Amino acid sequence: MSVPADTIAAIATPHGRGGVGMVRISGPAAATICRTLTGRLPPPRQAQLATFRDAGGEAIDHGLCLYFPAPRSFTGEDVVELHGHGGPVVMDLLLARVLALGARQAAPGEFSQRAFLNDKLDLAQAEAVADLIDAASASAARAALRSLDGAFSHTVRALTERLISLRVQIEAGLDFPDEELELDADGALTRAADALARELEALVARAGEGRLLREGLTVVLAGAPNVGKSSLLNALAEREAAIVTAIAGTTRDVLREYLAIDGLPLHLIDTAGLRDSTDPVEQEGVRRARAEIAGADHLLFVTEAGDPPPPPADLLAQAAAVTRVINKIDLTGGVPRREAGAGWTDIHLSARSGAGLDLLRQHLKTTAGYGSGEGLFSARRRHVEALRAAAGATARAAGLLAGGAELAAEELRQAQRALDEITGEFGSDDLLGRIFSTFCIGK
Ligand SMILES: Nc1nc2c(ncn2[C@@H]2O[C@H](COP(=O)(O)OP(=O)(O)O)[C@@H](O)[C@H]2O)c(=O)[nH]1
Ligand SMILES: [Mg+2]
């Protein structure tokens, strides 16, 4: 992707009414557009009161104008920001005027894309901008900011440096083969590759945790009617989100609640009781319940204390992780506890009294591999996959070094390619396009 030469503009504030709205312009024509629109160009990085005028010279709005000359701007290009009143009509008129003066409507994420192309941000940082805006909990926001500040990219780059130095040593050995000397006679290179593979593995775990912060955990409540699924949803959500009655078949639709456990965003989904029913509405509810189970990170199969049935085999096979909740222990006098079952975990609790709820929260966090949420950086699925690929290739290289340097060198080359994909040093236009197109307009 080459740096584009045209000028883009977009309303950077959310659509709707607000105290302030902002049109952002980036590109070589930004300064000229500003001059035509307001009559002058403010000094760099200083807010100046201005009147934004239409083609006939009539005022569209009064507001603040800011000019950031290249390269000291978000995109690295000339940037002008027009801060007006945040009404949709005013903003539309202002943007239309800017477009008439020669700018083009920006595509989603195009400002961030230009920042990336001008080396203002690497790819992981550009993604962190989007993640900060979309953060679903305070921990997720802090993690995104840490990534934006470069914590994740620096860690990846430091490991890449070590990988490169390893490659240099090995490939130098390949270029100047010496019959007398074995490349890794003392095993130092193997040890270095081993250590690097382990550190990459550790980073996979941290990035996985960061990804959880970003994407959250999807937990589905399923089980027979009347066992207390909706009661458990309400207890975890700490509000009466779902209707609870003693009548079996109360919940027929799929219900969603968004909450956070120690900063871990949780998508909690309540479903219709799984049973054979002749009622077409309930049948559809059961069908939807099964669809949700298939897409869940964690299935809570809710049962009642006494003689709880095991989770059905088809559910065990479908869900990524399964916990059998043994509810209503207040009726049997049971104590809250966690036990390992055959292929699942048992948690004894009472949705009504609240006993054992903390145990369940803790269990959901641990199963997901989520620690405290502190000191994390945000990461995406593609980062985790790239790190895993790099760790795997490096570990294979360590195993191959004693035998033949050539195969090991190739594995390390693949490892570096995977790491470079994270920061965007290596990446197809297609990959870049896909990433930036998911951003919102004006970002
Ligand atoms: N004693 C007791 N009753 C409960 C508990 N949880 C739910 N219930 C009751 O069980 C009935 C069914 O609850 P509900 O949440 O609607 O079950 P669902 O059909 O699985 O969603 C209601 O009368 C609840 O008040 C519990 O922990 N203890
Ligand atoms: Mg229910």
Description:
The chain has 443 residues and is of the alpha/beta class. Among the domains are: 114 residues, Probable tRNA modification gtpase trme, domain 1 (Gyrase A, domain 2, 2-Layer Sandwich); 155 residues, Rossmann fold. Helices cover 45% and strands 18% of the residues. The protein has a seven-stranded mixed sheet with strand order 8-9-7-10-11-13-12, sandwiched between helices. Strands 3-4-5-2-1-6 form a six-stranded mixed sheet, covered by helices on one side. Helix 4 packs antiparallel against helix 5 and helix 7 packs antiparallel against helix 13. It is flat, with a radius of gyration of 28 Å.
Q: How is the secondary structure organized here?
A:
Blueprint: E1 8-11, E2 18-26, H1 30-38, E3 48-53, E4 59-68, E5 79-86, H2 88-100, E6 104-105, H3 110-117, H4 123-134, H5 138-148, H6 151-175, H7 188-215, E7 217-223, H8 229-237, E8 255-261, E9 264-270, H9 280-294, E10 298-304, H10 313-318, E11 322-327, H11 329-332, E12 337-340, E13 345-348, H12 357-368, H13 381-400, H14 405-423, H15 429-437
Parallel strand pairs: 1-6, 7-9, 7-10, 10-11, 11-13
Antiparallel strand pairs: 1-2, 2-5, 3-4, 4-5, 8-9, 12-13
Helix pairs in contact: 4-5, 6-7, 6-14, 7-13, 13-14
Guanosine-5'-diphosphate is lined by residues 225-231, 244-246, 250-251, 273, 327-328, 330-331, 350-352.
